[in-house]
Design a protein that fits this description.
By secondary structure, this protein is α/β, with parallel strands linked by helices. The chain is 35% helix and 25% strand. Strand 8 and strand 9 form a beta hairpin. Helix 1 runs parallel beside helix 10 and helix 2 runs parallel beside helix 10. InterPro entries: FAD-bd, FAD-dep_Monooxygenase_BioMet, FAD/NAD-bd_sf.
Length: 394
């Protein structure tokens, strides 16, 4: 076991901040170095499944986030003309996996995590580079514009294009294009009632979901060449692709402005890394295992990584052993789901939709079945932070 008293986290996203909080609560002096000028994330909403919420329980934050759940009624999977292929509900999901699914804005989650860190622990507008991964007999070294820092542990949470990953594994091919692009928007949609849904078309999907603050989160994905962009604007592109789909999709598009729409091509790590650690450095989140968003597990797995890493702080090989097989399997499942919900052949789509409807009538909705073995994950450590706090008051 390696003694860890100091840690530097490179990247102030969900995985990095969760790791920082978990390490801080275990008595480690943590510094978070974030390249951007603020922690305000670029993005829209994130779906937290029960596995991630149990991870947040470890740092005493789970119940705060569960209280932000907005999905209370029915929902499910639809066809572009509105036919329901599969129905489910918040209650069914909670019963199957022991907790709710929570959709919230990324900025909200970032704010809750940052509030758990001591003043001065997060340094924004601070780019960092790995100078030396360290070894059992020497610390790791990180360089910034202010000079070099030595530390017992480096947590690399610097995203899909991780410079730390490239430094640790220079022969790894890195991320590749997944074959599709995504759009996201968060808007006000007053007076429009709808059931939470995802809709699968021909090489295209759309999702519309309520947030607790009254806004609506919508996302879309479509098979497209890498780097392609609309000749006018991305809202216009969405109108061309989805404008004739079922309600409330036209309402969302009517309410959105061009500047509300974010578009990003999807890249993922197709070849698993040989390990999630090297020397005194551990990779978390997209830096380790970027995956397509089709299971909504990217941020969830980053949270799992973070609390598992804190549990194995002094034994990084154990961290790799705990995380690499699981995340590799989930990433592969996300690729399979992308092939299913972004099919382009008419005959295959007809067979797919018929099978989904038949399977959902015979048992739990396909949406729920897809989370078996994922959403039922439990963290490796107890008691959780919330339980330690309660015990201390007795």
């Amino acid at each position: 076991m390696t003694r860890v008293e100091r840690a530097i986290v490179i990247g102030g996203g969900i995985g990095g901040l969760t790791a920082a909080v978990a390490l801080h609560q275990r008595g480690v002096r943590v510094t978070v170095l974030e390249r951007a000028g603020s922690l305000e994330p670029v993005g829209a909403a994130i779906s937290l499944a029960p596995n991630a919420l149990r991870g947040l329980d470890v740092i005493g934050l789970g119940d705060e986030i569960r209280a932000l759940s907005a999905w209370q009624g029915d929902g499910g999977l639809r066809a572009p003309r509105g036919r329901w292929l599969s129905r489910s509900s918040a209650a069914a999901a909670a019963e199957r996996f022991g907790g709710p699914l929570v959709l919230l804005h990324r900025a909200t989650l970032i704010g809750h995590l940052a509030a758990r860190l001591p003043s001065g622990a997060v340094r924004t507008a601070t780019a960092a580079r790995l100078l030396d991964p360290g070894a059992p007999d020497r610390p790791a070294r990180v360089g910034t514009s202010d000079g070099e820092r030595e530390t017992d542990l480096v947590v690399a949470a610097d995203g899909i294009h991780s410079a730390v990953r490239r430094a640790l594994f220079p022969d790894h091919p890195g991320p590749g294009y997944a074959g599709f692009t995504t759009w996201r928007v968060v808007i006000e949609l007053p007076g429009v009632e709808f059931a939470s849904h995802e809709t699968w078309g021909r090489g295209r999907i759309w999702g519309t979901h309520p947030l607790q603050d009254g806004r609506v989160y919508a996302y879309a994905a479509a098979v497209a060449p890498a780097g392609e962009r609309a000749p006018d604007d991305e809202r216009a592109a969405l109108l061309r692709l989805y404008g004739d789909w079922h309600a409330p999709i036209p309402d969302v598009l009517a309410a959105a402005r061009p500047e509300d729409v974010l578009r990003h091509d999807v890249h993922h790590i197709t070849e698993p890394l040989p390990a999630y650690h090297h020397g005194r450095v551990a990779l978390v989140g997209d830096a380790a295992h970027a995956m397509p968003p089709t299971l909504g597990q990217g941020g969830n797995q980053a949270i799992e990584d973070a609390v598992t890493l804190a549990h194995h702080t002094g034994d990084l090989p154990a961290y790799t052993a705990a995380r690499l097989p699981r995340t590799t399997a989930i990433a592969r499942q996300a690729v399979k789901v992308a092939r299913l919900n972004l099919m382009t052949g008419r005959v295959g789509i007809a067979v797919r939709d018929h099978a989904i409807a038949a399977l959902s009538k015979a048992g739990p909705a396909l949406f729920l079945r897809g989370f078996d073995g994922i959403a039922d994950w439990r963290p490796p450590q107890q008691p959780y932070a919330s339980q330690r706090t309660t015990a201390g008051k007795g």
